[in-house]
Design brief:
The complex is a heterodimer of chains A (125) and B (834).
Chain A: E1 10-17, E2 25-31, E3 34-41, E4 46-51, E5 53-54, E6 59-60, E7 66-70, E8 73-77, E9 84-86, E10 102-103, E11 105-108, E12 111-117, H1 118-124
Antiparallel strand pairs in A: 1-12, 2-3, 3-4, 4-10, 5-6, 7-8, 8-9, 11-12
Chain B: E1 2-6, H1 10-22, E2 29-33, H2 55-58, H3 63-68, E3 71-74, E4 79-83, E5 88-91, E6 96-98, E7 101-104, E8 108-110, E9 123-125, H4 129-139, E10 144-148, H5 152-163, E11 168-172, H6 185-197, E12 200-203, E13 208-213, E14 217-222, E15 227-229, E16 232-235, E17 239-241, H7 244-248, E18 259-260, E19 272-274, E20 279-281, E21 284-285, H8 289-306, E22 319-321, E23 328-332, E24 341-348, E25 353-360, E26 366-372, H9 378-386, H10 397-400, H11 411-414, E27 421-423, E28 428-429, H12 430-438, H13 444-451, H14 461-474, H15 491-500, H16 506-513, H17 522-534, H18 549-552, E29 556-557, E30 563-565, H19 576-588, E31 592-595, E32 601-606, H20 611-620, E33 633-638, H21 652-663, E34 672-677, E35 691-696, E36 699-704, E37 716-722, H22 724-741, H23 748-754, H24 758-766, H25 774-786, H26 791-796, H27 799-803, E38 821-824, E39 827-830
Helix pairs in contact in B: 1-8, 12-14, 15-17, 22-25
The chains are: A mainly beta (125), B alpha/beta (834).
Bound molecules: siroheme (SRM), flavin-adenine dinucleotide, iron/sulfur cluster and FE2/S2 (inorganic) cluster (FES).
């Protein structure tokens, strides 16, 4: 599926507290039967979220990957074989892997919320 | 002079760029009419749209560029008529415009065979951004799909369907094999099996006779009366040049379409040129972008007064398939055979590798070839073929790689003549690239900007980089070996700077010495430098997220996402009680156990959340971390030595334990291993280690720079007959020299191989203290040794760190439900990955 989350019908669910996520790193969030990787780019004051599954070998590990940037574009590198994915649109930066899903994130009163669109829920229900 | 270009595709854009470069703005008044609603975009990388690239990302240049260049760009306008007598065009809206020179760059459209039902919903072609938008929408409700056409484009479209989530995707090819125009039968068989592994269903020798369904497609019927049920279909059966405007204006076209041009790209009307995919030269349509750019170059030169200097003499149609996850390339004449030719084939069916080269019968020239599964040599082979470079005496070396001996990566590029075309997309020669380097472009990015080489498909970038490095070296220049885009320093420079400024955290280093946010290359490298310099707990000071995954969780990550636990067993010596504890812990946490090649025991398959508890029990029994996860000292193996062995000269076990306990936890550019043997029979294999020690009648012999791994190499003798204290001091110096100067992820063997003067130089530094660093290095090593603490001990006692060892941040007690085990020989094993 494409990674562009349409603005219509986004559900925000509370993922965790701000301090639960290490600065400039990630954690894995459980949402129903899905696993979502949540990243805090503390240096830029930005948050990103993506699927936790690395499409290369279908491993549930992206949240444990090193985050960083390439020409300013925020990305995560899978710990297994260092495939890297853009956290803006999910495309694979250094290979022919398919793109990963990305989710919007917002922080309110120290609580981190991840936005899932209805359409995602339908497809993965 | 007034120039009108019809069609705003890639070739038109390239033509505009070149014409502006050749002539002043006042010399040419340029107007472009394009049918599509957006300015020219990168059709070659159209499929990147599915991996998240937007229409803007693909745009060659925004409308503002045309404005800056004083080019009038009119999009959404189809030119319908040319009045050749009055030199005037008319658009579908009825506007008219006069020209002195008219350039047709109308490209081509997808060829759709006249099969009944092709107009049904769910049938697509693959040519424009709109086509892709329509496909994306439709794919949401489709489960199965097919592509008609197994050529370059068809396979790309099939990969796109997979990316769109159509898990059952079929490819239907009329010919008996895939990519019939580029590769041979044997190659095609290998390609087919590789694509089947990717999940595509391939049908060859099949021709569609009808599209079934009501308003929307629900299947395809074939001429052999079979049928395939599908929800959507992409037709990729070839291209048709857009020559309708030329036909309507009475210009000469070919029998199968295409606007006939001469070598200056003039049509049958000398005021009208045709370039790109609509032009027919010597009976050929050139369906690639590079020949289109070459045509643009010729016309830009001709009308800028270059006269007959440049002409279009045909173009090499070598190609490399991109995107699909399998390397496929063909070049020159891939099929050449018969008397005048010898063919060398290398096939490795199990690995899916097939390579074929065709060589002239005198063995001197490469005529063409095919590469499947492994195409790194494509550029080099293409150049060898195009430039008629004389082949080495054993021509098969060019596909097998020269066996034995150190290959010289750069010699290949250096051997090319200056005219050799390196970037065929932009038509940039070796001479132009080296020229740019001489003019001061000393990074690949700078070369890209100044010559445009590598800005098309990017396939030539490795060669561009080689050329850059070799040109700079030839000028006697120091080639800057930088870490990554965030740090313009080599590891050695960074090590010195971090030390000088006494920086302690990754963030401080980035703030002081780097830019941006860091990445997976510089974070572990800097973390390693920090650890080598200060030997502080690596997870402290927020440095945890700058560690590689293994270091971040103090364990080796394995298939499936579980971890392994390796307690230190110095010298391989262990008491029965400790063996029992390892057994008990393994049983309690259901871990697989194995004796490692490093004389210790590995416990595999631990869940992330169990790691702290496992280590708590091991630590209570007197174990400590074995650093199996770190670029650090691993094991110091030993043989049993003089305490038991009848040949033993010295107590190798005691010395191995002493050495291991001295350097445990020491972090370095790569891992370091050692061993101590009690005599020259060498049962501990010390000569295969980064530093190895062998007992003699008079003391210890110290060897350095050995390596196992993929290129095994024996260690070299550094010093002989040393007493234990001196031996340790030499090792201190050797290790500190290595740590302060090696590149990231370089073992001591590679480091030593690259050292000018080799082992003799090293001996001078370590033994004779030729750099005067000995005392400082010994002091620094002593500080690191004094600072050692078992990092697992620190971790289990720190609630903040323990908290990080859970899979779900919002359900810390739950383990990853996707982890699966099976059983094998009465132990567990992880379920294999795909
Ligand atoms: C467990 C063990 C295999 C075994 O079951 O025996 C092993 C397992 C791994 N080795 Fe090894 N190596 C093991 C002994 C060796 C040896 C033999 C030795 O040390 O005597 C060698 C050759 C000697 C050498 O290093 O020069 C060896 C050469 C490698 C290499 C190649 C290094 C090189 O210089 O080319 C790698 C890859 C790397 O480090 O980049 C590697 C990497 C790995 C990794 C860490 C791969 C990875 O990153 O996941 C494996 C971790 C498995 C895991 O999940 O725990 N392993 N590995 C051995 C652990 C020894 C120990 O107790 O610490
Ligand atoms: C998916 C895909 C992948 C490809 N991959 C590669 C590859 O890897 N390597 C490679 O070399 N090539 C590749 N190609 C081919 C490459 O894209 C073409 O060779 C190149 O785009 C041709 O450029 P052009 O300017 O001649 O034609 P086009 O890009 O087709 O542009 C012609 C433009 O003219 C417009 N036009 C036509 N008639 C009129 C008119 N009467 N009035 C106004 N406007 C008109 C059309 O709408 C179109 O926008 C690929 C093509 C596709 C579709
Ligand atoms: S040899 Fe390869 S497979 Fe075996 S443990 Fe070492 S890295 Fe893993
Ligand atoms: S599993 Fe992620 S890169 Fe291989």
């Amino acid at each position: 599926m494409m990674n562009r989350s349409s603005n219509d019908s986004i559900t925000w669910f509370p993922a965790c507290k701000l301090e639960d996520v290490p600065a400039n790193g990630g954690v894995c969030v459980k949402y129903n039967d899905e696993q979502i990787a949540l990243f805090h780019f503390a240096r830029r004051g930005e948050w990103y979220a993506s699927q936790n599954l690395c499409p290369h070998r279908q491993q549930m590990v992206l949240s444990r990957g090193i985050i960083g940037s390439e020409n300013g574009e925020p990305k995560v590198a899978c710990p297994f074989h260092k495939k890297t994915f853009s956290l803006v649109d999910g495309h694979c930066i250094n290979g022919a892997e398919c793109a990963i899903k990305v989710y919007p994130v917002k922080v309110e009163d120290g609580q981190v919320f991840i936005g899932v669109s209805k359409c995602v829920e339908e497809v993965y229900a | 002079m007034k120039v009108i270009v019809v069609g705003n595709g890639m070739v038109c854009y390239n033509f505009c760029e070149k014409l502006r470069k050749n002539g002043s703005n006042s010399q040419f008044e340029i107007t472009v009419y394009g049918e599509e609603t957006r300015p020219a975009y990168d059709r070659v990388h159209l499929s990147a749209y599915f991996s998240g690239k937007t229409a803007e990302d693909l745009t060659m240049a925004p409308a503002s560029w045309y404005a800056e260049q004083q080019i009038r760009l009119i999009t959404g306008a189809l030119v319908v008529k040319i009045d050749r007598v009055n030199k005037c065009i008319t658009t579908h809206q009825g506007t008219t415009d006069n020209y002195d020179v008219l350039v047709l760059a109308t490209g081509s459209s997808a060829f759709v065979p006249p099969i009944p039902g092709v107009d049904k919903q769910g049938v697509f072609v693959y040519r424009t951004i709109e086509d892709l938008e329509l496909m994306t929408d439709y794919a949401k409700h489709a489960k199965t799909g097919a592509v008609i056409g197994g050529g370059l484009l068809g396979l790309e479209a099939a990969k796109a369907m997979l990316d769109l989530g159509i898990t059952e995707t079929h490819v239907v090819e009329f010919a008996p094999r895939l990519m019939p125009r580029q590769i041979d039968d044997a190659g095609s068989r290998i390609l087919q099996s590789k694509l089947e592994q990717l999940g595509l269903c391939i049908h060859t020798s099949k021709s569609a006779s009808a599209i079934c369904g009501g308003e929307a497609i629900n299947g395809i019927r074939f001429s052999d009366d079979t049928q395939l049920d599908v929800d959507m279909l992409v037709i990729s059966a070839g291209i048709r040049p857009r020559d309708e405007l030329a036909v309507a204006s009475g210009l000469e076209v070919g029998p199968k379409g295409g606007i006939v041009v001469n070598e200056y790209l003039q049509t049958s009307d000398e005021r009208i040129y045709a370039i790109g995919e609509c032009a027919l030269r010597n009976g050929l349509i050139y369906g690639l972008v590079a020949p289109g750019y070459e045509m643009a170059e010729v016309v830009a030169s001709v009308i800028a007064g270059g006269g007959r200097e440049k002409a279009f003499h045909g173009f090499d149609m070598s190609t490399k398939l991109k995107l699909i996850g399998v390397d496929v390339a063909s070049f020159g004449d891939p099929f050449a055979d018969g008397e005048a030719c010898r063919t060398v084939v290398f096939e490795q069916t199990a690995k899916g590798v097939y390579k074929r080269i065709n060589i002239s019968s005198d063995g001197k020239q490469l005529l063409g070839g095919i590469l499947i599964g492994e195409a790194e040599n494509y550029n080099m082979l293409l150049q060898t073929c195009k430039n008629k470079i004389v082949l080495p005496p054993d021509p098969e070396d060019v596909i097998l790689g020269s066996r034995g001996g150190q290959g010289d990566g750069g010699a290949g590029v250096l051997g090319l003549p200056d005219e050799a075309l390196i970037c065929s997309c932009e038509g940039i020669s070796k001479g132009a690239i080296c020229g740019a380097v001489n003019d001061g472009c000393e990074t690949v990015d700078a070369i890209k900007q100044c010559t445009k080489a590598g800005t098309g498909c990017g396939g030539c970038l490795p060669m561009v980089k080689d050329l850059m490095v070799y040109t700079m070296k030839a000028q006697g220049k120091y080639v800057r070996n930088v870490l990554c885009e965030h740090f313009t320093y080599s590891r050695q420079e960074l090590y010195d700077l971090v030390k000088l400024h006494r920086l302690n955290t990754y963030d401080e280093v980035l703030d002081h010495l780097g830019t941006g946010d860091g990445c997976e290359v510089c974070k572990p490298a800097v973390s390693s430098i920090l650890a080598s310099l200060w030997n502080e707990m690596i997870l402290g000071k927020n440095n945890d997220t700058a560690q590689d995954s293994n270091d971040r969780f103090l364990a080796n990550i394995q298939k499936g996402g579980t971890y392994s636990v390796v307690p230190r067993i110095p010298g391989g010596e262990i008491t029965p009680d400790k063996l029992i504890v390892i057994g008990a812990v393994a049983k309690k946490y259901n871990l697989y156990t194995k004796i490692t090649g490093g004389q210790r025991i590995d416990l595999f398959g631990a869940h992330l959340a169990d790691l702290p508890a496992i280590w708590e029990e091991l630590i209570a029994a007197g174990f400590e971390s074995g650093h199996a996860y770190g670029k650090a000292l691993r094991t110091v193996k030993s043989c049993v030595g003089s305490t038991w062995c009848r040949f033993g000269l010295l107590d190798s076990v005691s010395f191995a334990i002493r050495v291991e306990e001295r350097y445990r936890g020491l972090r370095a550019p790569h891992k370091i291993k050692s061993a101590v043997s009690g005599c020259i029979r060498e049962c501990a294999e010390a000569q295969s280690k980064d530093f190895g020690i062998i007992a003699t009648e008079k003391g210890w012999n110290l060897y350095v720079g050995g390596n196992g791994g993929s290129k095994p190499q024996h260690a070299q003798l550094l010093a002989t007959d040393l007493d234990s204290e001196t031996c340790i001091r030499y090792i201190d110096r050797f290790l500190m020299f290595y740590i302060s100067t090696a590149d990231p992820l370089t073992r001591t063997a590679t480091w030593l191989n690259k050292m000018d003067g080799g082992i003799d130089y090293l001996r001078n530094v370590v033994v004779n203290d030729s750099l005067g660093m000995a005392e400082q290095w010994e002091r620094e090593m002593q500080a690191l040794v004094a600072n050692y603490a078992c990092e697992w001990k620190v971790a289990v006692n720190d609630p903040q760190i323990r908290k990080r060892f859970s899979h779900f941040v919002n359900a810390p007690d739950e383990k990853d439900p996707t982890v699966r085990f099976e059983s094998m020989r009465k132990q567990k094993k992880v379920t294999d990955w795909k």
